[in-house]
Amino acid sequence: MKYCIAKALLLISLFISTITIAQTPPPEPMCDLNGTITAAGKPLPLATVTINNTTLGVASDMDGEFELGFIPEGEFIVKAQAMGYKPIEKTVSFKKGASIKLSFELEEDVLGLEQVVVTADRNERKRKEASTIVNTLTPKLLENTQSVSIGEGLNYVPGLRLENNCQNCGFTQVRMNGLDGAHSQVLINNRAVFSNLAGVYGLELIPSSMIERIEVVRGGGSALYGSNAVAGTINLITKDPMVNSYDLTAQYNSVGAGTDGEAQGDYSVNMNTTIVSDDKKTGLALYGFYRDKDPYDANNDGFSEISQIENLTLGARLYHRIDYRNKITFDFMRVNEERRGGNDFDKLNHEAEISEAVDHKITTIAGTYERFVGTGSMWSVYGSTQNVDRASYYGADKSLQDYGQTDGMTYNIGIQFKSDFGKNSIVTGIELVHDDMLDQKLGYPDYENPIYAGDGTTIEGFEHIPNTTITDQNKNVYGVFAQYDRQLGPVKASLGARFDRYKITDLDHKEGNNDGNVFSPRVNLLWDVIPSLQWRVSYSQGYRAPQVFDEDLHIETSGSRKVIHANDPNLKQETSHSYMTSFDFNRRFGVWNVGLLVEGFYTNLDDAFAQSPEHDEDTGVTTYIRSNAENGAEVKGVNFELTASPNNKFYIRAGYTTQSSEFGEAVELGESDFLRTPNDYGFFAVDYIVGEKLTLIASGTYTGKMKIAYYGEELKPGETPIIIGDEDPGVIRTTPTFFDLGLKAEYQLKVGGLPLTAFAGVKNIFNSYQDDFDSGFNRDPAYVYGPTNPRTVYAGIKLSNVFGH
């Protein structure tokens, strides 16, 4: 396997080298460009100046000034842009030996309509020109909501909701448009390398400090991104170094402050720095993150509701411009995280009454070669790989037999071509996604069966139980995709399709073998009805292959019940048909800029994956069998998003979703509704800049009622356990609603000449948090819902040379 990966990446390197060497190098450029970028008459730092269809680019300094050299002769379009401002383009004719000076005055883009996005069609587009709605989550919003990890910030995107699924180890997932986390494709810099195994604890593993922005596209994306992009895609775009900078943030959280549970500490440190060479040809970004979080016990029963976490993440992004047409970029990320839930944290896992613990070592490496050709085209060749080494323990009652080891290797290699010509554009490519996963239950000494000496009295040793392979899965997906866009007056039409050939092999259990061919089409229409109103409509088809999924490797355990997951031997692929329509209204009323998005969605799932529990009374093990629901499932609803701002000092953003998710038949405890899925939820965020130094921020999330299964022993008055077939005795409960309100203040100052930002705040002020956690040794750890954290008080400082940005 490792040989195959090395060979594939070597072939990419050779291909890149061949292209680079074979091309005739251009004459040494002799032109240069300099100037200033301002907004409202004031210098605008960290704005970027790029030259279209080249690799050339630079960022303005703290005085709004920029310099860019090594520009070839010819006529080019120079673009100046910055987050929160409308870009400006100027056509400039460069002549050998000339030095050109330009000035740009950028206008505010309060509603983000002019922002460039890439996830809609794997090509750079202004948000208002993309045929699919793209929501962008910026580092500023992550800071305002004090989101330590990526997952927390996604609560502030319409249709998305982060939930905790386990009291013991804090297994989280992000639901999109009513579908669970396995229905969404997570991308890193447009590449599907975030593996099933890494997704077990999902986006909570990734620190917010490494992100330039997060782009979210709701609706089927399999036409471009392949398997699992049924509900949508979440694209994590890392920071590109454009200017010398640094920032360091240290924060302390008191989790559970002022609640019935004893408050616990959560420390974190974020570091970022970027270095750019004098000739602007080479740039390096480095980032680091450390977190130490203590376990939190909400009901004082001696067992944690929030897991203990220690995380160390280091990463880098390096680019080098070979010349003005060719560029190479490399990315590296290493995550070391240990987390544990249960009790007796000062003891070894098998000495505790309950322990769910995982030790992740995740290494991600990626490389991309880009070559611009002609006047509007670009080739890119890419390869990325992710290796996951996960040691685990899911056990109760001081069991020795519940240690495990899971290893996963994923790689994604491909080639893509995109071109703009007149009112048309095309994106096409070929790629291979490979995923290996080996999950083993580790052997142990069986002290119940000692080996005696010949006289039958002296113990010579103990029988040793060997390792047991749970799954040894090998998956290959070969895909070819294309999308064509055409502008027809006020209407833009997009036609896309992807053909995938997948093959899944279980090397240990042959009944897990599966293969298939999938054609996934997509049609999008964008109509500029009037300048302030856009209407979009789309149809897309997606699929999920019948593989072992991320949540299958998470085991919920208690003193009386252990929950595992397995696929039905006859499991077939799940196919989705998604229909979406939206009205995007953006207009200025007096001093107010107002944007309102109304988006309707409907998804029909053929052969929908449904999980039915089967309980073995002898072993106490409940197995959730994934099979195809005969009558499928459907998800439908409406997303609303409102943005409003009168100026650059006051900004409001809010979202609300109302929806329903239902199988065509009863699945668990006689219920056909998707469990853990509220029919309505939403968010809001408001920030207000007072004067020049003080910013006040309010944010919050709303979670509506939802149905959830309970399999514990603490029944409420009037409850009668439901028993259907081989299911565990349980009941269906309806949760209350929650409103999690947070307030924050940050103040900018200088200490010893160093720019410093101090901040403090409270999350979940009213402690709107679950109050009926199951308790004790025999608790049901999956009975967890609502906001992921109780009231939390925090404070911190940020040191940065890009003060105020």
Structural class: mainly beta
Number of helices: 4
Number of strands: 47
Strand content: over 45%
What is the approximate shape? globular
Fraction of residues in H or I helices: under 10%
For the biggest sheet, the summary is: 22 strands, antiparallel, barrel
Distance between the termini: 45 Å
Number of domains: 2
- CATH fold topology of the largest domain: Maltoporin, Chain A
The CATH homologous superfamily of the largest domain corresponds to TonB-dependent receptor, beta-barrel domain
The CATH architecture term of the largest domain is: Beta Barrel
How confident is the prediction overall: mean pLDDT? 87
State the low-pLDDT regions, or none: 1-27
Instruction: Give the CATH class of the largest domain.
Output: Mainly Beta
Report the C-alpha radius of gyration, rounded. Answer: 27 Å
